[in-house]
Amino acid sequence: MDRYWDPRIETMSRDELGDVQAHRLHWQVRRCWDGSEFYHEHLEAAGVRPEDVGGLDDLERLPLLTRVELEADRSAHPPFGRAVVARANWLIVPKTPSTLSTEADAVNRVSVAARALWAFGTRPASVADRGAPCLDHGLGPCAPPELANAVTRSYRAYGTAELGPTLAFECEARAGLHWAEDHLIVELLDPSTRKAVAPGEAGMLVLTHLTREAMPLVRYWTGQRGRLDTSTCACGRALTSDPWPGSGSAPLSPARERGLGTSALRGVRAKPRRSRWAAPPSSQPSRRRRSGGGLPGPPLPSWRLPARPTASS
Question: pTM of the predicted model, to two decimals?
Answer without folding.
Answer: 0.75
